[in-house]
Design goal:
144 residues; 3 helices; five-stranded antiparallel β-sheet; binds guanosine-5'-monophosphate; HIT family, subunit A
């Protein structure tokens, strides 16, 4: 997918936002939605998206919507740190397939990092079951 490809309203995150696809959700407000990554690179890996901006990537979003989603990113990052006590936390975002982007609805990864534990591969492996993700999500929600 090129950097200037048109937004596909049927992408997987649009379906999650619409409630047409299940996800383990963490937080929602008028602008943003946060949910657990189903192929987590570490315990607590989650994603933050803008709910209504039809942006494939960082280049395509209006500044006001970007500001709103970044507020959500900071809120979730704080909750991940408070709720899971990682040693570090990575916030990542990819633009275009050659850069590693696999879902073309702008999103930010919040990935807790634990000393001595290598991060898993990006967007690969088997999906984590909801009953595995849910207790971790509960700790993050409780820290919001
Ligand atoms: P990207 O590669 O576009 O930066 O990140 C997409 C992320 O979405 C990956 O980390 C991948 O594990 C995650 N992902 C892909 N499909 C789904 C899904 O159906 N549900 C959830 N919750 N995450 C997904």
């Amino acid at each position: 997918m090129s950097l200037d490809a048109p937004y596909d309203p049927h992408n997987i995150f649009a379906k999650i936002i619409a409630g047409d696809m299940p996800s383990v959700q963490l937080y929602e407000d008028d602008d943003t939605l946060a949910f657990m990554d189903v192929f987590p690179q570490s315990e607590g890996h989650c994603l933050v998206v803008h709910k209504t901006a039809p942006a494939t990537n960082l280049l395509a979003i209006e500044p006001q919507a970007l500001s709103a989603v970044m507020n959500g990113v900071q809120k979730i990052t704080k909750a991940v740190v408070k709720g899971l006590s990682p040693d570090g936390v990575r916030v990542a975002q990819f633009n275009g397939a050659p850069a590693g982007q696999t879902v073309f609805h702008l999103h930010f990864h919040v990935i807790p990092v634990y000393e001595g534990a290598a991060l898993g591969a990006h967007a690969s492996g088997g999906p984590a079951a909801p009953d595995v993700l849910e207790p971790v999500a509960a700790k993050i929600r409780a820290a919001l």
